[in-house]
Amino acid sequence: MVTLKDIAAHVGVSISAVSLVLNDRGEGRVRPDVAVRIRTVADELGYAPNLLARGLKTNQSHIIGLLSDQVASVPFAGQMLGGAQVSAAEEDFLLIVVDTAGNRDLDGTAVKTLLQRNIEALIVATDFHREVDLPMTPRAMPVVVLDGLPRDRSAVADWVIPDETGGAYAATTHLILAGHRRIAFCNVEDERFVARTLRRAGYEAALSAAGLTPDPALIVDASDPSTAAGRVQARRLLSTHDRPTAVFCFSDQIAFGFYQVAQELGLRIPDDLSIIGFDDQPFIADSLLPGLTTVRLPHRDMGTWAARQAIARLRGDAPSGPVSTQMPCPLVERASVAPPNPEGGTPRT
């Protein structure tokens, strides 16, 4: 590690002179040309301030802890970490991430580890939108829930979630504007997913706004958000002669299952069947042929908001009560939606 002593030796000045300049207190006390030389040498040597040592003097570590529940291992959710990391760095904060790999028994140990690093705020990041039990932290420490909300609504914590209902509304409206009237929705039955209720609400609201009555026969539940589970319901919906002309899927992986079954049945996408997913998951939505129109979860925006909100709390720039926000879920248009085929594709039996 490069120290103030190393810089002082290179420039030929005292350690105190280096300290004054690098802490922006050298004006009038250190000659301007010497100050420039000190900063130049510090940059060339790659000097970074010892935040721990500084924290002992100022009682501020400039460190934010992030407790991750499998987020670090989920490809598309990793954008949350990127957004939080960049935003923290822009404000001269360091983000330390501890991932519990979904083991709730490790939460207490993980938080203790972060507290021992003298964190000033804690971000609790979930692997999908759901309610969470907050870990025990010092009362004065800002806590922000990322992609979730506290199970105990009276908890002193801020949170950010995606606008699931708005995203589903936009997806269904896009299909309606393309001319579709028989629009199916493949949801999930697992009640752990808060989004299952919110996305169905958006789907039904869009139909109602267009004067269409939701058809219970066109609403099915996959056992989980996987491709395999999607195939089961796809065969159920697409193998009939009164099949839907379009389907909105809870996830991109379910949509992938519909692609596979449509191919098995000889149905062309989007000519015979239009499909919209949800997530904008890399290596699925942008890799399918034709490309999958989907709803993007705002992972990076949520991560950015969480870090900025934690810092605002630390600086006293946030309201006294808990703050929550919903981030828009934009529709990403690709090539899986077209007007319904008046002749209609006949599925193979």
Report a brief summary of the structure.
By secondary structure, the chain is an alpha/beta fold. The protein has helices at residues 4-11, 15-22, 32-45, 51-58, 78-90, 107-116, 164-177, 195-209, 227-238, 252-264, 299-314; strands spanning 63-68, 94-99, 121-132, 143-150, 158-162, 183-188, 219-222, 246-249, 274-279, 293-296, 324-327, 331-332.
The biggest sheet amounts to: 6 strands, parallel
Beta-strand residue fraction:
15-25%
Q: Which CATH class of the largest domain?
A: Alpha Beta
Structural category is alpha/beta
Widest β-sheet, arrangement of strands? 2-1-3-4-5-11
The total count of helices amounts to 11
Explain what this protein looks like in three dimensions.
- The chain is of the alpha/beta class and 349 residues long.
- The protein has three domains: 4-48, no CATH class; 58-162 and 299-328, 3-Layer(aba) Sandwich (Rossmann fold), CATH 3.40.50; 164-297, Rossmann fold (3-Layer(aba) Sandwich).
- The protein is 38% helix and 19% strand.
- The chain contains eleven helices and twelve strands.
- Strand 1, helix 5 and strand 2 form a beta-alpha-beta unit.
- Helix 1 packs across helix 3, helix 5 (78-90) runs parallel beside helix 11 and helix 9 packs across helix 10 (252-264).
- The mean pLDDT is 91.
- Residues 316-349 are annotated as: Disordered.
- GO terms for molecular function: DNA-binding transcription factor activity; transcription cis-regulatory region binding.
- It holds the Pfam family Peripla_BP_3.
- It comes from Tessaracoccus defluvii.
